[in-house]
Amino acid sequence: MQSSPPALRVIGREHHPISRKNISAAALKVLYRLNEAGYSAFLVGGAVRDLLLGRQPKDYDVATDATPEQVQQVFRNCRLIGRRFRLAHVVFGRDIIEVATFRSNDDDGSGDREIDNGRLVRDNVYGSIEEDAVRRDFTANALYYTVRDFSVHDYVGGYEDVQARVLRLIGDPAARYREDPVRILRAMRLAAKLDFNIEPASAAPIAALAPLLSEASNARLFDESLKMFMTGHGARVFELLLQYGVLEHFLPDTAAALAQDHSGLCRDLVLTALRGGDARVNADRSVTPAFLFAALLWPAYAHELQVLLAAGHDMAVAERRAADRVTLRQLERIAIPRRFSQPMHEIWWMQSRFGQRQRKRVFRLLNHPRFRAAFDFLELRASVVPQLQAESQWWAWAQAQTPEQLADGLVGKSAASDARTGKRAQASDALTDTPADQEAPKRRPRRRRSRAKTQE
C-alpha cells in the first residue's frame, strides 16, 4: 500500500458533470442530515465514478467520520450490520443507503483489524478520509463528492483515471490481490462493465495469483458470478477471464473442456449464450441463473458425457453421472444452490429427448415444466451447430400446433424419428469435438433378472 497518499485535488462544480438532480433523493437526505449533525459526509465509490461517466448509479454509498452508532442516533430508520466490516444501513422504503465510517490502514491493537495470510478478514479500525481513500481497491472507486460545495475530492489520482478509462489498483497490486483474491474478479467485472483498460501494473500479477481464488468462499464466488454474468456484460467478462488466465481457476472443468475443443464450438456456444443474456438484461428482461450455469458448464458436461458413453454406459446413466460429477466439482469453487443446479440438470438431460418423435413422448416433453428453458437451450445449440437446426425448427413447429394437429402429424413417424435421432447423434459428436468417423460406443447388454422359485 502507498505510505502517503498524493496531495488532495479538489475538482470544483464547474469542472465536473455531477448534478444533484441525478443523485438519489435518499442519498442526498443522508448527506445533508449528517452534515447538519456536525459530521463530514461524502458520496463515494461507484456512484461518483458512474456519475462522472454519465451513467445512472444503481447503488449509493456514503462515507463519513461518524461511527455506525452515531449514524444510528441521527437516523431512526437505521440498522447496523456486519461484524467483519461494521456498516450502517439507512432505509427509505425500498432504497437502502449504505453508510461506512472512514477506515484506517493501521492496526491500533484493539483486535478490530485482522489479517490472515495476507487477506483482510476484519476491518473496524476507524481513521481519516485520507486513510480511507488509500485503502479502497481501485482509484476510480476512491472519489468523494460533497454537498457542502458540490466538489469532488481526489486523493489517489482517480479523476484522471476515470477520464482516461483506466482501471488501476491503489498500492502494490500483488499485495492487494493477496489481501482479497476476489479483487481479481472485480477487476474483470469492472473493466467489462465500464469498458476500461486494466492498467499494466495492475494486470501483471493476475495470472500468477489467480489460484488464490480457490481459497475464497464458494458462497461469495457465487454472488460474484451473478454480478459478472447477469448484469449486461457477461460475454466481455468471459473473454477477459480467458485473456488473463483466470477461467481455469474459476470454472476449471469448463476451461479444461474448452482447451480440448479444437473446433471452438463450445466456446462459441458459451459466448452466444452470454451475449443473449446480456441483450435480455439490457432490455429489462429476466435471466435465470439455472440457464446461465447450464451454458457455462455445458462444455464440461458434454465432455464428461462423451467419456462415460465411450466407457459403455447407458445414455440415461451417463447423463446423470456426468451432471453430478461436473456439478460436484464446480461446487468446490462456486456454491450453486440446488434450486438452480436441479433445473440446470433437467435442461441438460432433455437435450437428448428432442430427437424422439413418438406421440406419447412428444406430448410428455411438451408438458414438462422445464420444456421452455430446454427448448431455448436447444435453439442456442442449433445457432452454433447447423446439424441441430432441423430439430429446433421441428419443435418450434410442434409448439405452434393444436394437440389434435400435432397428434395427426405424428402418425407413422417412426422411420423419420430414427433418421432424426441419427442426425442428433452426429450433431452431439460435433459439439463435443468427436471425429465423425469415430465408432459410437456400444451399449452394454441388459441382464435380465431370473426369479428363483422358492422351495418349501
In short:
By secondary structure, the protein is an alpha+beta fold. It is built from 23 helices and twelve strands. Mean pLDDT is 88; it is low at 108-113, 412-428, 433-442 and 450-456.
Protein architecture, described:
This protein is of the alpha+beta class and 456 residues long. The chain is built from 23 helices and 12 strands. The protein has 3 domains: 1-170, Beta Polymerase, domain 2 (2-Layer Sandwich); 172-247, Hydrophobic Seed Protein (Orthogonal Bundle); 251-431, cca-adding enzyme, domain 2. Helix content is 50%, strand content 10%. A hairpin with a 5-residue loop joins strand 4 and strand 5. Helix 7 (182-194) crosses helix 11, helix 16 (298-310) packs across helix 17 and helix 17 (315-331) runs antiparallel to helix 18. The longest helix has 18 residues, at 265-282. Mean pLDDT is 88; it is low at 108-113, 412-428, 433-442 and 450-456.
Secondary-structure topology with pairs:
Layout: E1 9-11, H1 25-36, E2 41-44, H2 46-52, E3 61-64, H3 68-74, E4 78-81, E5 87-92, E6 95-101, E7 113-116, E8 119-123, H4 129-134, E9 143-145, E10 152-154, H5 158-164, E11 166-167, H6 173-179, H7 182-194, E12 197-198, H8 200-203, H9 206-209, H10 218-229, H11 234-243, H12 247-250, H13 252-260, H14 265-282, H15 289-296, H16 298-310, H17 315-331, H18 338-350, H19 359-366, H20 371-384, H21 389-399, H22 403-409, H23 414-431
Parallel strand pairs: 3-6, 11-12
Antiparallel strand pairs: 1-10, 2-3, 2-9, 4-5, 5-6, 7-8, 9-10
Helix pairs in contact: 7-10, 7-11, 11-14, 13-16, 14-20, 15-18, 16-17, 17-18, 18-20, 20-21
